[in-house]
């Protein structure tokens, strides 16, 4: 990619004898939202820390904003924004002070940093809480403040590590809206997540990681079309009525057996449900839904994203 802001080839990260990232290739284009999707321990955060120039690579090549993190770390860090997995706000300062003092680290004048703080408070919908201490804020408010702080230096690249972990649904959707606004403004974003709905909502393109490797790459729609069917029929049975997976296999294209349910992959969920009824099986519940990235991951790895 000639316009890639991030380019990695055979990128590796080792911790002693353990290799967390096992030779991955990544290209992130200017203006796109790029995702790393996978469970905890897949290597997503280790990759992000190398891109953020806070953890040296163990092997391979890495270019960020056309520079080498090994020799140009300070120059790269001045032009990127980082939202860590855990909020690291200064709880002894007010909401506004968290922004203004952070801005001074980048050499912004007092006048400029005050104007930027006011702009970011409005963006994060925290203007009315500007003088409040950080500690009593809700989790969603703290997360929005952390994202606002990462934008103080007008970054060309924004790194977000598990941005909505621990938030309630309403807070997650509000955060998604803020990130979508940044996308419309042309801010390139790299997001790690283990939430498939988040990846589908935010990402133009993503890679699926498992055990330190990339196992698939594409847009959410492309990955679902490539690795799953159009619909999924979820069946739950009482323990005494639970069939063997083989009894369902002939009814649809593919069957996945999970501890609490069966997933039947098919182009027509309602037709598959009728076939199940005609076979004499009586599920406790049946749900027809569209395929998701969760199904892609299950197909590629044999386990759920949240395992």
UniProtKB/TrEMBL annotation:
One Pfam family from the record: ABC_tran
Listed GO MF terms: ATP binding; ATP hydrolysis activity
PROSITE patterns according to UniProt: ABC_TRANSPORTER_1 (PS00211), ABC_TRANSPORTER_2 (PS50893)
GO BP annotation list: response to antibiotic
Membrane-related topology note: Peripheral membrane protein
Domain ABC transporter intervals: 6-236
Family affiliation: Belongs to the ABC transporter superfamily.
Name of the protein in question: ABC transporter
Lineage: Bacteria, Bacillati, Actinomycetota, Actinomycetes, Pseudonocardiales
């Amino acid at each position: 990619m000639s316009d890639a802001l991030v380019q990695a080839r055979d990128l590796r990260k080792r911790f002693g004898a353990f290799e967390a990232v096992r030779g991955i290739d990544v290209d992130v284009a200017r203006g796109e939202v790029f995702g790393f999707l996978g469970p905890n321990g897949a290597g997503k955060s280790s990759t992000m820390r190398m891109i953020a120039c806070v953890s040296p690579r163990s092997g391979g090549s890495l270019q960020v904003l056309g520079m080498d993190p090994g020799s140009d770390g300070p120059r790269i860090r001045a032009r990127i924004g980082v939202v860590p997995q855990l909020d690291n706000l200064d709880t002894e300062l007010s909401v506004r002070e968290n922004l203004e003092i952070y801005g001074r680290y980048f050499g912004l004048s007092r006048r400029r940093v005050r104007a930027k703080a006011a702009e970011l408070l409005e963006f994060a919908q925290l203007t009315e809480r500007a003088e409040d201490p950080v500690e009593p804020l809700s989790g969603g408010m703290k997360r929005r403040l952390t994202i606002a702080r990462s934008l103080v230096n007008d970054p060309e690249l924004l790194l977000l590590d598990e941005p909505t972990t621990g938030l309630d649904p309403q807070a997650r959707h509000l955060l998604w809206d803020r990130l979508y606004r940044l996308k419309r403004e042309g801010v390139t974003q790299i997001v790690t997540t283990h939430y498939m709905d988040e990846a589908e909502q935010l990402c133009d393109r993503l890679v699926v990681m498992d055990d330190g490797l990339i196992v698939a790459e594409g847009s959410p729609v492309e990955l679902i079309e490539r690795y799953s069917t159009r619909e999924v029929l979820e069946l739950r049975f009482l323990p005494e009525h639970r069939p063997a997976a083989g009894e369902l296999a002939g009814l649809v294209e593919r069957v996945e057996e999970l501890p609490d349910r069966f997933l039947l992959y098919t182009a027509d969920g309602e037709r598959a449900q009728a076939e199940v009824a005609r076979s004499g099986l009586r599920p406790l519940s049946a749900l027809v839904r569209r395929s998701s990235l969760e199904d892609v991951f299950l197909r590629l790895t044999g386990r759920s994203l949240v395992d």
